[in-house]
Amino acid sequence: MSLVSSNQWAVETRTRASSMFFVIAAVAVLIAFAAPFFLSRSGIQDLFFILTMLVLAQCWNLLAGYAGLVSVGQQAFVGFGAYAMFATVILLGLDPLVGVLAGGLMGALLAIPTGFFAFRLQGAYFAIGTWVIAEVVRLSMAQWKALGGGTGTSLPTTATRDMVGVKLVQDIFGVRSAQAVDILCYWLALILAVASVVFIYRLLRSRQGLGLAAVRDNTVAARAVGVDALRIKAAVYIIVAFITGLVGALIYVQKARISPDAAFAVTDWTAYVIFIVVIGGIGAIEGPIVGVLVLYLLQTLLADYGSWYLLALGLIGIAVMLFAPRGLWGLFTERTGIQLFPVRRILTGGTNKTNGGTNV
Amino acid sequence: MSVLDTLIQGILLGGLYTLFAAGLALVFGIMRLVNLAHGDLIVMAAFLILYLVTGLGLNPFVAALIAMPVMFGIGWALQYFVLNRTLGPDILPPLLVTFGLSIVIQNGLLQGFSADSRRIPIGPLESASINLGPIAVGVMPLLTFASAVLVIVALNVIFYRTSLGRAFRATSDDKVTAGLMGIRPDNIFAIATGLALVVATIAALYLGARANFDPTIGPARLIYAFEAVIIGGLGSFWGTLVGGIIIGVAQTFGASINPEWQILAGHVAFLIVLLFRPRGLFPRAVD
Fold first, then answer.
1. Rounded Cα gap, residues B183 and B204, in angstroms
2. In a domain, B238, yes or no
3. Do B271 and A142 lie within an 8 Å CB cutoff?
4. CATH code of domain A16-349
């Protein structure tokens, strides 16, 4: 060992910018946790919207940007997760938080049969196939009379009021139960957002993540060196379905009212999400973070203009795709070279580093 | 008798879906471009026809004839200036750009024409029917189906019997080599999309005359169209007709059992075909 100690190479993914960023991010998350102490109810609701959209966008980015699975049918998992939560609460009489977990599990479960169909389709066919499947799930849910059929239903107010933790939040903040539910949902969304970003980052830095990137860049070459492309893609598809189901269920705990058209809305759960990822930057973890902030800003600025808002969003999306396919973050990182979530392996140490190896 | 009636109605409905799908099949077959805005472009054409009919007092069929070159121009420009930039080995750019376009057209139409349901007035033809033996068949559905068959025949003639069709096939097979032979692929692609929107205009006439429409119904039409194309198999126009008919028949049978099952039955039929023939019933090209 001592023979190579002065000439040791190491593979790293960390950069100075990213190390600094992690400190800032940790502080930001702490402040975000404390947000209910100093933000109004509508502020918390806005943050909840941002965080849930962020998780959905991270999921779609993993799917389309890394695994090459361009799905236009992720609303299937949002809606199915939400319906699973409603079923757990209304039909089984359990806590909505149990329902959120059930939403995730049912989302993952749904991904198995839908994946069976969708994975027979390549590329563009896959996109349309997932959309058809989402429509089938929506139309099927509209047949579920116990949960309101086509018109939908509401969560019983007692169910959310008696939710685990609501009483505690009420006591801490001295607020009504409805606001306490908002705060609780916000915290859960924050945990989910942080957890999903950390999870995706770790996944991309792992062996599986390297395989994923290899498959994306050249499927044939990746398979030649032993990467099981189908298996990795299927795993990503199911994990994303799980997280999407969780988020869907959580969103509807906060909304407390569901209908098939809203829960499976292609605009809300897929179009927005796609624009977030495209505008922010596809194929980078920073992209959806930038994108969701842009979306929120646009929404706030153009709130009074109705359909002009979506029109503008569509045009911006098209322009970004045509002229800056790596999105706003891509433009930034091209100029500065800064990466906050670096996944590229960098070779360090070796001859140009005196007495290297000790700090590895 | 009612089974036969349902079957006939389904086949005729399939004609409408074939019209939705034919333009898509053309573009898809030539440049592997998935146009997610196709349904919204059909709705846009329907509004254009409606505008010509109500604004200028034209006969709907004349209005459609005027709308056709306009839509051809829109299609040509759209492909030449926007979509050609997205073509390449990566399928993401065309998908995302046309998805954005779909949202833009929908909301543009909402802004211009409001969310009200509209219908293209076609006078007494609307409710006319003729008796074929024991079954009464609507004139409009019959016209729709006849137009669908005509469009398929015309597309086949263009594709296999004209020099334009030869250029289509050549660029579809090998864009670079076709370019060496004096074909300008960019222009050929633009013509293909223009032609697709001419077919979309015909579809729009029947869509708008037979049922109410509003700016948001495009994506659902797109899905039916895609199902027809995929069931038929890539590159086969007759396959698209068969695909359209399968969706139409599945929908009318579904509706005859329970009106709420109409759309669901069509989707289920599509998934069943997919299960057994993932490349469709009559695939011509390998992709």
1. 32
2. yes
3. no
4. 1.10.3470
